[in-house]
Model the fold of this input.
Amino acid sequence: MNGSVLVVGGGVAGIQAALDLAEQGIEVFLVEKAPSIGGKMAYLDKTFPTLDCASCILAPKMAAVLRYPNIKLLMNSEVEDVTGRAGNFVVRVLKRPTYVDWTKCNGCGICTQKCPVKNVPDDYNLGLSNRRAIYIMFPQAVPKKAVIDARYCMRLNPPEKAKKEGKTLCGVCERHCPTKAIEYEQKSEVIELKVAAIIVATGMELYNAKNIPEYGYGVYQNLYTNLEFERLVSATGPSGGEILRRSDGKHPKKIAWIQCVGSRDVRFNHYCSAYCCMAATKQAILAKEHLPEVQCTVYYMDIRAFGKGFNEFLERAKREFGVRYIRGKVVRIEELADTKNLRVVYEDTAESYLRVEEYDMVVLSVAITPNSRLPLPVELTSDGFVKLKDPYLDPVSTTVEGIFVVGAVAGAKDIPDSVTEASAAAARAALIAKRSMAREVRVLANGGVLNG
Done:
């Protein structure tokens, strides 16, 4: 028995849960598969409906995690197996190598400047730019430590000719590292944890728009997902916040947003993804702030402005920024060979008429899909979300006692709802952890024998 809690996922919901638990003096193990905490919120430029800077909200929470000695970060790690029951779970965690000794690395970034391998697609910018084989995930990363991507490192994955000849290539980062933190010999390791409760905060992924061939995502150069557009308008993005077309590097004059891509569609996902209407509205406003002359159009089936201040935000976009909303279903998108512009063919459902309009850039508001592929003994719904014990009376408890779920992995939702659920789950997990600690104290007081 012990009083620790495992939080799986280092997004804003997982961070909030970990902080709430740590403030109560409970030991927290925070497991994150990426080299930095932050999750999907770290990709965002601003939040709706207030247009507050996303990193101004998230970065203080990320920094606070490092201030608590009872929060143990397990980065570049994933849960492999969970056994036991509430109060006494045994969790096996696979910790993948970073090939850098993080106890020595000070995040100076010299290695990331010297590495000769420069053409690695940058995951943080969703492949819109390149990085080096050794990298720090993003400027505000926590922990701010370097990681070597073994797939592209010439030392760890040399060309076939060098392998046959037994040559050792590169080693540039090792030679230039001032703290001698490079460790090419690092191996994966499995860590076993004993915890009283588990909070699942693994978040969401975006639906693969390539599964919808009539839109041509991945084929047409000036077609983006909404998260890719988020990186375009961000100051830390591939173009420093300047909105440029992929085909010719020019500013777009007309941009369209297409809603419900992969959601509310019987072919893919029947549920509403909850965030898309407001995210598209926010991005249209940001586009107008960056390029005042740009024309912004949003194609929608229904506008779902359900949250506090959401409808006012929508009306502001129409009134102050001239964002145009068209109730219609997009049938297909076609690329013009000469200009690389995109022709949107849609049914105007307000007038039951098929129309065509041309744009310089099109943004797809793609569906949320749950990141629930975890070896946890929890039930899933038919959509792949974690099944709740009672979605109305107990929206953070799973069907397994002692395992709680927060954020988008339990259903499509936005940031405020995810953070609220995180605090609720932390309160529930804290009760189990404290009961477990009290139980252990009684056992020790009775010479190892449990009395009552």
Summary: The longest strand covers residues 324-335. Residues 110-176 form one domain.
